[in-house]
Every structure is written in C-alpha cells, then in structure tokens.
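Exercise 3.2. Students should predict the tertiary structure of the chain below and write it as structure tokens, then compare their answer with the key that follows.

Predict this chain's 3D structure.
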Amino acid sequence: MSYAPDWILNIVCAKVAERYVLGNLPIEAFANRMSRELLLTYADCTPEKLYSVAENMLFFLAEIEDDNALDHCHSFIYRAVHFDKADRPRRLKGLFLDPLAAVKQQTSSDTVFKSFRAFVFRSRAEGNLSAPVEWNVRNHKELISLANILDIDVSFSDAV
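Answer key:
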C-alpha cells in the first residue's frame, strides 16, 4: 500500500482546519472533498482521518484558549513544507526526487496531532515561527498538485 508522508498529512489536516475556520461549511465538507482527491495517491487519507485530526487541532487550540488558530495552522503548514522533523531544510528538488511520492509506512492520526501540538507550544515559547502572511504552498512549483487539492472548491454537498 502507498501512504502519505507525515509532512503531507500535517499540511492537509492543518489546511482542513484553516479552511473550516475561514469558511462557512462543516469541517466534514473540507475533509471529504480533499480526501476524494488524495485517495487517488494515498490510501490512508480517509475523510475520517483528516476530519478527526483537524477537529482535534481546533479543540486543542480552544482548550489552551489560543485565539490564533489561523496563524498556527498557516505557520504549521509553512514549517512542514520548509523543514523536516529534525528542523533541517526539506529537499523538494532533485534529479530523481518526487517530494509527493507515497511512502510504505502509515502515519497515525495521533502522530500528526502530536506534531501540531508540539509546534504550537514551541511557537508560543519561541515566538519566531510565524510564516509570512503572503506565503502559499502554491509558491513551490514542485507542490502545485498538492496546492490544487488544498485550494479545491468545496460545496455543502461535500459534507454528506
């Protein structure tokens, strides 16, 4: 089976949460619509997984009474694109490198949520992890297909 790399799941779940906060549709609509496209490549990008992680991210921010949900989600996406787990710059270009290639090991929902939680605590402690406001995944030509999924049109009927 082919699974989404952990950093791709980080990006997608944070984007589901971000679009839900900005939009006027149920969170399930965003998770269902993005999942439909992602399942063509990654077997583990089920709507339930995307929905539950995004919901947990927002519940966590509410629990710690942090009102910067959009900034945290946007910055988490930025960090996932630009840096790996060890905080080294992520390689997106290479002769035989496909940054969106599937991996053989599945990433759990809990792992994605814990990454977000750790990022938020680190961001609050250090204060210098915010992404530039104008930055977008679409700025990286290697990630255009992912950006198309993240920015896909969602309607109320996608919630069903």
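Discussion points: The chain has one domain: 6-159. The chain has a mean pLDDT of 94.
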